[in-house]
Design brief:
Length: 394
């Protein structure tokens, strides 16, 4: 089994350097937290140049200014944590940014399983306290459905609709080939998930445990995501003065204007991002305004009396392509849509084009005015007035 794991690591880290760098558990925690989008809860205490270099090298891609390059990429992440004692060489972390690049490093001293479980639970608490990520194309919310069939039953859990955590141990009996298949499936997609794969060796009973092997960090005041506590509709039953009002046909999608009789026109009112059923999604969004289709965005958590959230159905928008004939040539016009019912036209390209052109013109005009002002402020050379004399007295 040790040979197969060695082959697995060598195949995954084919683009990594031959000598793996070794980092402390504190630095490893900062790297994983930054990759999971939880860096706001983790601060660097007494940093050194080596730790900063490792965080910048392995912390994952950083968001671009104004979201210029990766504005439509998925923020979903997959954390695979295997702790079964098979990695006898030490704790190893393998990371993939979903672009074919694989890197790895080692953790100098592996914490105990209890400390690892506490760290993962704190990661979950921090992730669920964050607001849901904006994803108009629904790429983040579909990440768990794409890899669910590759994971063992009831092992893959999604938190705040973007963080997928797969925890494995000896009882799972997941072979190396299954892990390679899961890793290859994630890496093979065009907009693949970013993956952090952590393997922990069997903890030594004779090793001395530290008080905080992963370091210190902060936890949010609210331990549950706001999406797990939906607001209930407050209603009162006053005695009607005249005739009673007609009953509202359906309140499952509150807040929505319920007097929409037309199912083909534009969608009016405020629509929620999630619907309980597929029929409710198609009815309230008028078939996603003809610019997409209703799909299951994510499954509810729990079942039966322990059910915490329900299934979420929503619109997955698709672009509209129109071919325009211009003489002997044919041009294509692509229109992108957004919003809970795909009713809003995406004009971000036109907006940024207008902003860039406006800023460029303002820069050119201000530069021209400044150049003219600087030229007019210069003194004339003395050679021009050298041959000029004053009037002669008579």
């Amino acid at each position: 089994m040790k040979l197969s794991w060695g082959f697995f690591f060598s195949s995954l880290s084919c683009t990594a350097t031959a000598a793996r760098p070794s980092v402390s558990p504190n630095t490893a925690r900062l790297i994983v937290a930054q990759r999971l989008g939880l860096s706001r809860f983790h601060s660097i205490e007494h940093p050194d140049a080596e730790s900063i270099r490792h965080i910048n090298a392995y912390g994952g891609r950083q968001p671009k200014l104004f979201g210029a390059k990766h504005s439509d990429r998925s923020r979903a992440h997959l954390l695979i944590w295997r702790e079964d004692g098979l990695a006898s060489e030490g704790a190893t972390v393998i990371i993939s940014d979903g672009e074919g690049r694989v890197q790895d490093f080692e953790i100098s001293s592996a914490p105990s399983p209890a400390d690892n479980a506490r760290l993962i639970n704190d990661f979950i608490t921090q992730a669920e306290s964050l607001p849901a990520p904006a994803d108009p194309k629904k790429r983040t919310y579909m990440s768990a459905l794409d890899i669910e069939h590759l994971a063992p039953a009831n092992k893959l859990h999604t938190h705040n609709e973007y963080l997928n955590i797969l925890r494995l141990d000896k009882s799972d009996n997941m072979s190396t080939e299954d892990l390679q298949t899961l890793f290859g499936r994630v890496q093979g997609s065009t907009d693949g998930l970013t993956v952090t794969f952590v393997t922990m060796p069997a903890s030594s009973h004779h090793s001395k445990r530290a008080a905080n092997p992963w370091g210190t960090y902060s936890l949010p005041a609210v331990n549950r995501a706001r999406r797990e506590n939906p607001e209930m509709i407050l209603s009162s039953n006053p005695v009607p003065s005249s005739s009673p009002a007609p009953p509202v046909p359906n309140l499952e999608d509150f807040p929505v204007y319920t007097n929409q009789a037309n199912t083909t026109g534009p969608v009016r009112g405020i629509l929620p991002s999630c619907f309980d059923t597929m029929a409710a999604c198609e009815k309230r969004t008028h078939g996603c305004s003809g610019h997409g289709e209703c799909k299951l965005l994510h499954k509810g958590r729990g079942s039966g009396s322990e059910k915490q959230t329900i299934d979420c159905y929503g619109c997955a928008c698709s672009p509209t392509i129109v071919e325009i004939e211009k003489g002997m040539e044919t041009a294509r016009k692509v229109t992108y849509w957004g919003g809970p019912a795909c009713q809003k036209k995406d004009i971000s390209t036109e907006f940024w084009l207008f902003v860039v052109v406006g800023v460029t013109l303002a820069f050119l005009i201000s530069s021209g005015i400044g150049m003219l002002y600087s030229m007019g402020a210069e003194e004339l050379p003395s050679v021009i007035g050298a041959g000029v004399s004053g009037p002669v007295r008579k």
